[in-house]
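User: Hi! I'm working on a homework problem where we have to compare a predicted structure to a textbook description. Could you give me the structure for the chain below?
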Amino acid sequence: MTFAFLIYRYFPFGGQQRNMLAMAQEAHRRGHRVTVLCHHWQGDRPAGIEVVEVPVSGWTNHSRTQAFARAAAQILARRQVDLRVGFIKLPELDVYYAADPCFAEKALCQRGWLYRLAPRTRAYLALERAVFEPASGCHILEVSPAQRSSFIRHYGTPEERFHPLIPGISKTRLAPDDYPEVRRRKRRELGIDEGDKVLLALGSGFKTKGLDRSVLALAELRRRGRPARLLVVGQDRWQRFAALARREGVGGEVAFLGGRDDIPELLQAADLLLHPAYRENTGNALLEAMIAGLPVIATRTCGYAHYVEDAAMGAVVADTATAVEIADQAEAVMQTSSEDWHRRGKTFADTASIYDRPGQCVDILQAVAAQRGVAS
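Assistant: Happy to help. Predicted structure tokens:
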């Protein structure tokens, strides 16, 4: 079969981007032809997978997205493609990987009338409608089942078009047998003393991930005489958060490490993952930390927060949690030994069904194509 994967921007450190690439590689491994269409590709190109960069222009994000949709459609009109698989909302998709929450819920239920009249809002509502309206026939790879009711309420999407997915966490995050040595080695590399407490913020999109709340919680811990360091890993604009840290007196305790390839080692070097997100459809970072034996503090809005509670691997706080409340939980969590967290993490890692999402997704793509009479 021939699949076209459409994503606006690829960079190696985005969760959605990594999921897309894993699916593309699994499809290629099974003998399918995969072409990725994107506006911009950063990093190495995967072997056996065609990458087509689509140049577009526009003054705003939504106008560039609309231009990308038109340009990609023109390219695909000249090719024989069995399935169009979107990782952003676009017209004429056969399958959509639903990593983002329902935009109509936000625009129509959580914002005022001026927001709804903005060209940006109208553009994104139209793109979402093209995917979820009954007439589209687009199948939905459902990352967060909690979002299904919103899509059905706003668009009347038939239930049978939704395909719930398991999380799909890489086993490279599992704690190694020699994790104490990995921890010591990585801390030496980073210039961190063994007795220092280290908080980890993991993931691009600092604003929505609640990095400001993590910085404020760090400052609150320092005021209590519980100093710690915060390592920030991800590819995003960091300057405003560095300025916040300086104002709070913890500028020297916050390190912005950028996008990294050594996430497994960093998970072992840290004492706590802080993820007080304002909006998070899923939260792969939570599960990556848990199977590494690292406790987590996350807000309830995170789609995967229930795993933290079910496995007793940290604490889930209210979406409105203050820095004081987050610091309270951080103090409590860090009183438990690393050995205990690793025991709990191993139990979770050995029993949870969270690993092979790429395989499940390609199974679904093959089934959708077969329903439409495409020969394998």
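For your comparison, note the following. The mean pLDDT is 94. Residues 166 and 353 are 7 Å apart (CA to CA). Good luck with the assignment!
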